[in-house]
From TrEMBL:
The keyword Iron does not apply. It comes from Runella rosea. The chain crosses the membrane at residues 12-31, 43-66, 295-317. It comes from the Bacteria. Keywords: Cell membrane, Membrane, Transmembrane, Transmembrane helix. The keyword Cell membrane applies. This is VWFA domain-containing protein. It holds the Pfam family VWA_2. Residues 79-275 form the VWFA domain. Signal peptide: none annotated.
Length: 319
């Protein structure tokens, strides 16, 4: 048997005082009994009874429990780092209500279907920023995904590879080196950055699973800004199109998979299946307290003995 708490000086003083006073009481009782020519054996019975329930009360106070106080809890799953394009083209309305709003909605569905995994979030336009480190806290992840906006970063272009580089860096910093790591890239594929071969090779080298979700349509859509459509220098309304060919080539180069969300189909269920198909590995191990305080049993036994002590009387002196 183990205890949640240890005896303090107060308990030791209390027990010592009880024993001293009770021994004095018994000694005085026997002296009086001898002077009267009587016996006082009954007081010994009361002594053992009261000592027993007093000890039971002390044990209950210390919070007794049985078995091991801690247990190893192992969590298996995957690390999923989500890269979301928040460039201005993601405001296009070829997918209603907009490409970015669709991404936000689908990410909520995705995380709800993969609750046993850790999620992180990186947003990018011309630069990439870590929004949420890998975490089991899906409420925090969903809070950040639902606040995504094209106003969060400067919109001077789109650099997908800057997001991949930051993602690889953060995944390699993670101490859980043996975990299954997944990169989920959600973009319309309009890329104006220069992707180095080293970055793409790193995805294969470190065994990352790259899943790319193209958002948009081949026909394209317009971008509304301040109540009007964005126009080019010639006054023509700008049309932004899904660059599916580039994204497919990126998936092929890195050994990844390409999926698409457009106005006719939604590949999120396939993305969920693809993530589930990746082998789950150990992503967290910790000791968790599993103590169950059993004080009630000792307290109940003490109360029964106290009631017995009160209800059952004995003759102290017997002539």
């Amino acid at each position: 048997m183990n205890f949640n708490y240890e005896l303090t000086a107060v308990e030791y003083i209390f027990m010592g005082t009880f024993l001293v006073l009770y021994v004095l009481y018994i000694g005085r009782t026997f002296l009086v009994a001898r002077a009267l020519g009587a016996t006082a054996r009954a007081v010994v019975i009361k002594f053992f009874l009261r000592t027993t329930y007093f000890a039971l009360l002390i044990v209950a106070l210390l919070g007794p429990f049985f078995g091991e106080p801690e247990r190893d809890i192992i969590a298996e799953g995957k690390d999923v780092m989500v890269l979301v394009d928040v460039s201005k083209s993601m405001d296009a309305t070829d997918i209603q209500p907009s490409r970015l709003e669709k991404v936000k909605f689908e990410l909520q569905r995705l995380s709800a279907s993969l609750v046993e995994n850790r999620f992180g979030l990186i947003i990018f336009s011309s630069e990439a920023f870590l929004q949420v480190p890998l975490t089991f806290d899906l409420n925090a992840f969903e809070l950040f995904t639902q606040s995504l906006s094209t106003l969060q970063v400067s919109n001077t272009g789109t650099d997908i590879c800057s997001a991949l580089e930051l993602c690889i860096q953060k995944l390699l910093q993670n101490p859980a080196a043996n975990t299954s790591k997944i990169i989920l890239l959600m973009t319309d594929g309009e890329d104006f950055g220069n992707c180095e071969r080293k970055t793409l090779a790193s995805v294969r080298q470190f065994g990352f699973n790259l899943f790319i979700v193209g958002i948009g349509t081949n026909a394209g859509g317009h971008i509304r800004q301040k109540g009007d459509w964005i126009k080019d220098e010639n006054g023509q309304v700008v049309t932004t199109k899904l660059n599916a060919a580039y994204l497919r080539d990126l998936a092929t180069t890195t050994g990844g998979k390409y999926f698409e969300i457009n106005n006719r189909s939604n590949a999120i269920p396939e993305v969920v299946d693809a993530i589930n198909s990746v082998e789950s590995r150990l992503i967290d191990s910790r000791k968790v307290a599993v103590v169950s305080n059993k004080y009630r049993y000792f307290l109940l036994a003490a109360l029964v003995l106290i009631a017995f002590d009160v209800l059952v009387t004995v003759t102290t002196f017997q002539v």
